[in-house]
Amino acid sequence: MTERTLLIRKIENGTVIDHITAGYALDVLRILGIRGREGNVISIAMNVPSRKLGRKDIVKIEDRELRPEEVDRIALIAPQATINIIRDFAVAEKKRVTLPEVIVGIVKCANPTCISNSNEPVTPQLNVVQRSPLLLRCHYCGTIMEKEDVLKQF
Amino acid sequence: MLKANDFEGRDVISIKDFTREEIDFILKTASRMAPLVEKGSDLLRGKILATLFFEPSTRTRLSFEASMHRLGGSVIGFSQPGVSSVAKGESLADTVRVVENYADVIVIRHPLEGAARLAAEFAQVPVINAGSGSEEHPTQALLDLHTILEAKGRIDGLKIALLGDLRYGRTVHSLAYALSNYDVELFLVSPPQLRMKREVLKDIKGKIQVVEMDDLTPLLQDLDVLYVTRIQKERFPDPLEYEKVKGSYRIDKKLLESGREDLIVMHPLPRITEIAPDVDETPQAWYFKEVRHGLYVRMALLALILGAIK
After folding, report:
1. In this complex, is the C-beta atom of A137 within 8 Å of any C-beta atom belonging to chain B?
2. What is the pLDDT of residues A52-96, one digit of tens each?
3. CATH number of the domain at B4-136+292-305, please?
């Protein structure tokens, strides 16, 4: 029997984001607005073999618990991700990211001449046309957006 | 079975919001409006239409105004946002919430995409989209269909080419959506830079046969309808890009000799150089006849939306 060592160590308190689409760990940090200058210990493992996904990325953020709206944001780029909130080395909460049918207020329409990008009293609304690969459509002007268009905004 | 009062109070924002059955119903009602253009009518007496034109327009605004007058209604509105409260920085949402108190229906043209949908969300009265940026122009699509019906007696089974600026031209977006409800073969002819918007392609591919191409010539002899558009100079972010593609296509009498005798040439107008004046005298020229169909269709829409036809 071969001894398997953990690629990244267990954390005492914080959040583990597992089953991130391989290659998107850095984008997950970006979409959460985590730049690395916040002081938290952050561990990233990329392209790790996974029984479920073939390959996956993992992000561990110490001493920070993700809020529900942050979890929803992850769903935009890593729809299969799982979120574990860790307290005292144990999993205190398990969350699955869920992409709602309509994304309200998180992402703007990518079309600069869309009315929702002008000074009107409305919140951007994007309808989810397809989850994977991601395809969004602006409720107002109908512009189609993909994962890359979303990432450009973070 | 669809009834006239199913349309009462409805917005006309995108042609996609209408089924084929609904489109056919509007077209039939439009045909009933034709005699009223001469005779006049009291169908909309006491009703007020507000026209909010945030972007220059001649024919669409006049067409809506004439339609309202022909049906006995009246019209208020502006066509120069520079002299209205808009110039003071008022939002569209505020403008429509004020105007809805004065009018029974609002017609809006705006340079931004999605503007008509936003206006409809804020207004309590029905809103008709008369052109929203490079997005859509649904009433133009309806009048295009009505024109084709008159010329050909049917829409199903036709070979139709849309030519020119398919990227920024809102009329071709709405027309492509509208045609995708029918059994047509659609040819999209444009310079590579001005291909049909991917949003439109995504929606219509799979519903009808669509072919994209650069050159009209090999197609011309089989076509039933040639729909020509102007290159939309005002919507190019880069004027140099416009210079590269302007004058890409020019339809003249000589070129049309290789087309069928019963080919019809359409254009939403205004035209610049894409159709030579010598085409005007040919039987294929249908672009000025279209204007009349605009009246029929807009009269029908106003009468239906305002519940004047039961």
Report:
1. yes
2. 889 999 999 999 999 988 888 899 999 899 999 999 999 999 988
3. 3.40.50.1370
| CATH 3.40.50.1370 domain locations along chain B | 4-136+292-305, 138-291
Strand-pair category, B105-110 with B127-132:
parallel
Protein fold of B138-291: Rossmann fold (3.40.50)
To the nearest 10°, the Cα dihedral for B295, B298, B299, B304? 160
Question: Which residues of A, range 85-114, sit inside 8 Å of B by Cβ?
Answer: 109, 111, 113-114
Tens of pLDDT, residue by residue over B122-180, are 999 999 999 999 999 999 999 999 999 999 999 999 999 999 999 999 999 999 999 99
Instruction: For residue B115, list chain A residues with Cβ-Cβ distance below 8 A.
Output: 115
Query: How far apart (Å, rounded) are the C-alpha atoms in residues B203 and B199?
Result: 7
Burial string for A71-82 (b: 16+ CB within 10 Å, else e) reads bbbbbbbbbbbb
- Note which residues in 70-89 of chain B have CB less than 8 A from chain A: 89
Q: Is B191 on the interface with A (CB under 8 A)?
A: no
pTM of the model: 0.92
